[in-house]
Amino acid sequence: MKTDKSASVFIHPTAVVDQGAIIGLGTKVWHFCHIMSQSKIGSGCILGQNVFVANGVIIGDRVKIQNNVSLYDGVLLDDDVFVGPSAVFTNVLNPRAHVERKDEYRPTKVGKGATIGANAVIVCGHKIGEYAMVGAGSVVTKDISAFSLVYGNPAVHRAWVSRAGERLEFEDGAYASCPRTGEKYKRTEAGVRLL
Q1: Are 72 and 89 within 8 A, CB to CB?
Q2: d(Cα 76, Cα 56) in Å, to the nearest integer?
Q3: Of 22, 62, 137, 186, which sits with the fewest C-beta atoms within 10 Å of its C-beta?
Q4: Of the candidates 44, 47, 43, which has an alpha carbon nearest to the alpha carbon of residue 17?
Q5: What is the pLDDT along the chain (195 residues), one digit of tens a residue?
Q6: pTM of the model as a whole
Q7: Residues 106/110/111/115 CA torsion (nearest 10 deg)
């Protein structure tokens, strides 16, 4: 484990952190977590009880991962991502116990500020855009646009949300303001963007 001795990295005594794992300053690793040697965790993160981080996983800064989440090889969480309890990430599309498929891992990228709800399933090989929101219990089977609110099985687009997670109501179909922050957004054929 690589840490700055003067930094406040907290690792609960029941957590297992393999030699070589990189953990950023101010990160907290709680009960029964396992962080493998070739993983990288940014600064200011919180890993709740029973989180598993496999080799090759990269976690950005200020990420919050709730209890009972496993992140397998190929998962990349950008800065400020929230992962709800018991969310599931996969890395192989058609696993079989008797067939070795380690050369078939498909990457999953979760963009900056995105939220994955409790018990959601993220099928590998897809991208979840910045500040997107995946509802609890949803099954993601395709790419999700930035600022999109999706839910269901399979998850489908239901609305647009701001960086603060508030629903956006577009006036004249093109412009919206976040009711919490006042930030302005524009909707185009390509999706939604912050102005």
Answers
A1: yes
A2: 9
A3: 186
A4: 47
A5: 444 444 689 999 999 999 999 999 999 999 999 999 999 999 999 999 999 999 999 999 999 999 999 999 999 999 999 999 999 999 999 999 999 998 899 999 999 999 999 999 999 999 999 999 999 999 999 999 999 999 999 999 999 999 999 999 998 889 999 999 999 999 999 999 999
A6: 0.93
A7: 160
